[in-house]
Amino acid sequence: MKTQPIYLEDKLREVNESGRLTYRSRSMPTWCPGCGYFSIVDGLPGALNDAGIAPKDTVVVSGIGCSSRFPFFVNTYGFHTLHGRVLPVATGIKTANDALTVIAIGGDGDGFAIGGGHVPHAARRNVDITYLLFDNGIYGLTKGQTSPTSAVGFRTSTSPYENLDQPLNPLMMVLTYGATWVGQAYAGRPQQLEALIKQAIAHRGFSYLHILSPCVTFDKTDKTYQRLGDHVVDVPKEHDTGNLVAAIALAANTNTPALGVLYRTVRPTLADALDAISEKAGYKGAGVRRRAAA
Amino acid sequence: MNAARHHVIIGTGVAGNQAARTLRQREPAARISLLTLSALPFYNRYDLPRVFRGVHDWREFLVDPPSYYEEQRIGLRRCTRVVNVDAKRKVVMLEHNEELPYDTLLVASGGRAYLPEELSEYQPLLDGFGSFEQAMAMRRKLPDEGTVAILGGDMIGLDLARTLIDTGHSVVLVAGKQTFWPHVETPEQRQELLRVLERMGIEVIEADEVGGIASIRAGARGFATRRVVFGNGRECTADVVLPSFGLVPSVEFMLGSGVGIERGLLVSPSLRTTDESIFAAGDVCQIWSGEEKRYRFYYGWKNVRAMGDLAARNLTGDDETFEPAQDETLHIEGGVTIHSPFWEYA
Amino acid sequence: MRTDVQISICGSAGEGTIAAGDILRNALAAAGYRIISFDAYPAEIRGFGKCVARLRATTEQVYSLKEKSDVLVCLNDEHGIPHVDDVRDFGAVIYEAKSITRLAEGGHVSAHVHPGQIPYPLALRELSERATGALRSRNLVALGYLAGLYSLAPEPFLRIIEKKFKSKGAVAEANRKAFEAGRLAGTQTFKLDMVSFGSPSAGQQSVMLSGNAAVVDGCLDAGIDNFFGYPITPATTIMERLATEMPKRGKRLVQTEDEISAIAATIGAGYTGARAATATSGPGLALMSEMLGLGVMAEVPSVVFVSQRGGPSTGIPTKTEQSDLNMALFGSPGDAPRIVIAPTNVEGCYRCAGKAFEMAERYQTPVVVLLDLYLSNRYETVVMPAKPPFEPNCDKPLAKQELGIGYRRFALTPDGVSPRALPGTAAGMHVVTGLEHNEFGRVNEQPENHEAMSRKRHDKLLAALQHPDFTHYKRFGDEGRVEIGLLAWGSTFGECLAAMFRARTEGMRCAAMKVVMLQPFPAVAVAEFIDQCDVVLVPELNFQGQFAHLVQAQTGRIVHRYNRVCGGPMVVDEILAEMLRRVGTRRQKAA
User: The complex's ipTM?
Assistant: First the structure.
């Protein structure tokens, strides 16, 4: 069957007209060629553009790491914070002004080593933010040390003999912490990734998207495109996304990571709870007072 | 010997305070506890009439300043009531449930105002003058040029009468058996003394001549005035009524101790009771008098002070006997005033 | 007639000691007296620890508690006995008349009353049981007794008892009865002590606030939008009270999972333009250090209230100290300057709290407000201003033409402050980061840039030394040259003032200066002050002399330290003795 040729000019026009480029900043990403993060820096703008969320109303918050350079590469408001502290800063931003769309970004080390103490609380409070966790199983920015999601036996600069620690399972953790939207994506499948990002943002509540993303420079053996590509599967069609236990079972299977939405439910957000308290306390006004934007 | 002996003295009157002073001089290392019901340190009761001369601050009545007790390391325990003395265990039991072990005990609790049985029902209407608090209460109740009715008229009451007259008040004396207590006088002497009192400005009513005191009433509601009603119907009005019938020794708390008691604590001429560790001094004790072949009281500031000093010396090794320090005669001066050795104090 | 009566109530935790103190100070304040009050608690919630409620009622302005109390109420003999020494001669000691258990010699308060003090045995237990059937009301019997003994009007007491216990029904009635029983006993007692209450001055309307409560009022009056906090002694009550008040105004408060997330959320909220704050103590401030540095680097406003307590490490959580100054000034990686202010009394807590939000916003920086446990938990009667004296918006205006692709969030302006575009502002998008950055906010490692930005972050704060309607420092006492000057900060200044006034009555020429803005430091004014003193003494409640260090570093002058880490406020007598010692030595040398 003959396929239609795709002309570069058409493609460029299409991209320009879509408007997604307005979400990209003038800074070129500093990631290594082939890094999975390129899919995300394309996917997030696409998702925001599709959803019609303006750059001025978006805040991208990050921790420290390769992933966390992200805010510089998009044309939204951004806060590049400290290692492990993206979630509480994001919570502060959203609580102060819930007209803003807040995207929290961090790597596996940022989120589950030093930042691990903050995840349960952001999840259980159901802060209405989207947490994009870039999992490459390594500390890339500091040149290749073991991370909480590194496999047993993995060799890195700080585990020259081999890694002894059992890796964490962030998806299982986040599910038990009470997150109200949990999904998994893979940088090697950018269209699915963009779709999932869009769903995550649209969800009203704490959305957690775990993004498997190879580090081409420091991980040549474990979480490579080759191996991941072979092993990832889609979340089975019959999976009930309202069934927490089933979602946890899916998440437990790390040999064949399931891509898609694992779990989804609706309950009041942190802002809802705080506003309900205000009402209880007798406050009769409308919502949170915000400084008028210039 | 035993440098940390604990000497307990019950009563901070003249006797008790003198004993504490002497004890401290004799045993610099001993512990001394001085117990009293009063809320104030030792002051001179003889001095109290000064409240009618404008002295209202109790600090001006103190014989020793508070620092004296601290410097001399005398443990002054005020608002402390003794309820029993266990002489076998040598422990003083205090009302607030504390036990005080002692090596030696000196009872110098003195006497309190005696109120005859037949007048006890009127106690709420009567005033006292035995403490600073009572003296100030009387001063507040008594208006300028007010009247005080003194029932009985012991020397303490008559001393107060002098000051009351001198400060513009009126005094009515209802005289009876206790007039001039503790002096003993003949009927003729008594009549002469009563005339002197009248010349001093005191109105004298002989209780016998008016049928005794029948009752004491309060005035109409809102008035502090008192009415003393006599047997023959006669009444006398006063602002304050003061029973002045002499002293009765305070010995109730000693009843369980086993020491000899008649009206007061019975002591040898060296002031020791029937318990070798317990002595007594002052108005509370009756001292054996070889001359009179009886246990008798000795009153007056000089006697009482001498007893306190003697007891302290005997408690710390001496063995001397008591010699009365003052005579007991009541004199008339110039026909217009009387003079009693019981009015003298340093 | 001048009134100056200090009352201490001593009991064990669980005997209602603190409640009694609270009722007493409120009643006396309502009656019109000025109050300074500070209680001491045990660390445990209940059990056998000792509590001492202490308050001083005056008609004139005073600055500290007195060394000696005028009246002591012992609800518990074991705890009360050590405090009998704290009562002055001719003062009153009120205690339980009779013990239910047999006591060994010396086990009763009456054994310890000094000859110069007046003992008032009171049948607390019996009166309490007769009035309410319970022993629990002994504290109220004692309060009533005080009211009766000193002829204090009962109405303010009864009103406060009513209010305090109104949610507990029968308890209010029982407490009222207990109070009346005590009061009757008090009126029937012959008053022998030399303590008396004169008529209170008919002054302005005042309220009684603790330092922490004043901080809360300052926050509310400055329009606080968000508070994020984590419980820690002695700052917890700030969060507790805000948790009640903020929702009433539709404002959001969240208790976070730790101090790091507390300051992180505060800074996040500050980034959006909200007025946000957190409150903590030393250990929490340590945890917040890294984040404060981010606030400095990203030039985001935030306010941190720090109530210092005994250190180091977990230290002594229920005792006061002033040993977190260094950490407040410097704690963070690199040169991370931030504004640090420290009030000296409860009214100052109110003003500094509100002003902190102004400064954070105007200079785009974290502002650390240093209190200490003594100030946080101390009550004072304060006259509040009729209108909140705080500016609701201190942001530097951002002109529309500056927005767009060329918007420089970190523009190098003459005063160092760059107008900020708040999220939601069209064409104002930018990234703030903890990495060194250029004017556009983009990561930049160039040496000239780093030097320029470092200068910007430091120099912009200097304008805080001229921040309007703020007392950065103040001198008291003799004008011109003096023999000795006291230089102090925080709550210690109250004791220093008291010592200074006493020293002057003893013939010393002296002055005292309080420094409220510690960073940036008013070096010129302080140096001037030091130059006018023959000797300068710096009393502070820390071991290392952190403030003295700062003064010497900033002014280049030598000062003399007077350091105590006694867990309680500085003792006026001891400061005075030290002053006399130094002046004496000096006078001797001169002679």
Answer: 0.93
